[in-house]
Amino acid sequence: MCGSQVPGPRPLEASTWPERYAEPHQDASCAMCEKDFAAPDIGWGLLLRRGVYGNAYLWRSGRVRGYVVVMWTGGHVARLTDLTARQLAGFMTEVTSAGRAIEAHYRPMPGLNVSLLENDIPHLHAHLIPRHPTAPTPDRPPAFAHLDRDRQDETHIQADAAALRALLADPGATEAVVGDTLPPSGGSGSRDAGRAGDEGSEEAVV
């Protein structure tokens, strides 16, 4: 390529990662740990199911109806990779159970995005984002601004929460969606208490 210049490497940009992520420590304040996991409403969202490893909440923010967040409740943990094998299996089973309930309630639904972003709040949580048939940009994830800005219609929130709770209370209720069921993730099992060591556009659908 005569006369062309081969571009050099791009200069590194200064890190803008929050300091709490650069040096995570167990005594740091945590907005999620400060929530009352026994409450039916934590402000951010309505409790759908209190699990052994995490709680599922129907989120109030954003424009995507049915946006659910599963928050780890077994002590402060920042990353999925901090979990033991047993904790990982338990938490992801509960995330999957919430996803199946979402798929059962919002049918037909062509897709469900599940994200563990670890970008802002250093506490383990999974985002479950329904991709409704009317949503644009099906070839890429929805812009996070559409999950964070604005607020869900409270009437929809209350009605959807009731329906999702019923589905999560009966694991067999989602069998028609997946052709199989996972073992119940809640119940009388003991929580692995303490710290581990053993996160386009989308429009709400009315």
From TrEMBL:
<protein>
    <recommendedName>
        <fullName>HIT domain-containing protein</fullName>
    </recommendedName>
</protein>
<dbReference type="InterPro" id="IPR036265">
    <property type="entry name" value="HIT-like_sf"/>
</dbReference>
<dbReference type="InterPro" id="IPR011146">
    <property type="entry name" value="HIT-like"/>
</dbReference>
<feature type="region of interest" description="Disordered">
    <location>
        <begin position="175"/>
        <end position="206"/>
    </location>
</feature>
<dbReference type="GO" id="GO:0003824">
    <property type="term" value="F:catalytic activity"/>
</dbReference>
<feature type="short sequence motif" description="Histidine triad motif">
    <location>
        <begin position="123"/>
        <end position="127"/>
    </location>
</feature>
<feature type="domain" description="HIT">
    <location>
        <begin position="66"/>
        <end position="138"/>
    </location>
</feature>
<dbReference type="Pfam" id="PF01230">
    <property type="entry name" value="HIT"/>
</dbReference>
